[in-house]
Amino acid sequence: MTQQTAPDVCVEPDHSQQPAFTLPDLFQDLSDAAVFADTDRRIRWINATAAAIFGYDAAELIGEETRVLFADAAGYDRVGVERFNDSTQGPGQRYEISYRRKNGEVFSSQTTGSPIRGADGTAQGFLAIVRDETETQVMETLLRRLYAISSCPEQSGDQKIHRILQLGCECFQTSTAIVSKVQGNTYTVLFSESEISPVEAGTEFELGDTYCVHTLNADRPVAFHKASRSHIASHPCYTMFRLETYIGVPLIIDGAVFGTLNFTCLDDRPPFSTQDLELMKYFAAWVALEMGRSQTLKQSG
Q: Contact 250/219 with Cβ under 8 angstroms?
């Protein structure tokens, strides 16, 4: 899952087109997008997060109508009637609206918007605070799909684990998934799902030669999107397997580390996001749940 990140520098638009009053520095540093438009709904100022979320440089937006940010004309017209006009009264209220990034991607948001009024009560412009709901929707969709797998009465626990691994490969854009058991320095494959060549269950490796040794040492989700350019490039895990992409998490069962869950690919990919690392915890929790239900622990000794 790709995460939008703000530029390292603040956005500095054309000062000749900035609002007649000074916006507090707080707006510049918000984790949500902040967009100020004049009474003609032309953009006069954006913060760094807005530039990152919408995918524009500030100079590309200053002077443009805010309609350029909306997913469709109907949404632009609706908020103009309901929110962004001089007759709007009261404090800003949060509402749902869809926007469009520069690359054409449409995303849902929670937006708070209202007029900014001067001392005489007249509107000097309109301020919108936009929260990108993409990550929330991704999480909700994933949980629904995991629940659907878990609640399927026609499939065994092992079949459900394989479906979870397939879902993980889809989610992280990888080709292979492995559930392992780790005892001492022995890494044993319990489940493998791959569109290339699945590793046979029961296959053993030296733990120190695997990518998962880094995950277990960190005791948290770990990811590499281009291993050949990372600090593990000279480690046996890379020199032996040549997997550019890896994301793994410790598998915790009955309060103790049982093994690992990981998703891998020979090709590199865009960097993993913080949300991707969080999603790994959900996948691990569901795998652990199904392993307990199907008594895989007992069968594996």
A: yes
Length of the chain: 301
pLDDT tens-digit readout, 137-175: 888 889 999 999 988 889 999 999 999 999 999 999 999
Task: Tell me which CATH code domain 136-295 carries.
Answer: 3.30.450.40
82 Cβ contact list (under 8 Å, min separation 6): 88, 95
DSSP 114: E
Reference 120, options 21, 16, 18; nearest CA is 21
Phi, psi (degrees; rounded to nearest 5) at 277: -65, -35
CATH T-level topology, domain 15-132? Beta-Lactamase (3.30.450)
Cβ neighbours for 182, distance < 8 A, ≥ 6 positions apart: 188, 207, 212, 216, 257, 258, 259, 260
Q: Where in the chain is the domain with CATH 3.30.450.20?
A: 15-132
Q: What is the pTM assigned to this prediction?
A: 0.67
User: Please, which contacts does 22-29 make with residues 24 or more away whose CB atoms are closer than 8 Å?
Assistant: 23/127, 27/127
Q: pLDDT (tens digit, 9 = 90+) per residue, 179-201?
A: 999 999 999 999 999 988 889 99
Q: Is 211 helix (H, G, I), strand (E, B) or coil?
A: coil
pLDDT band at 22 (very low <50, low <70, confident <90, very high): low
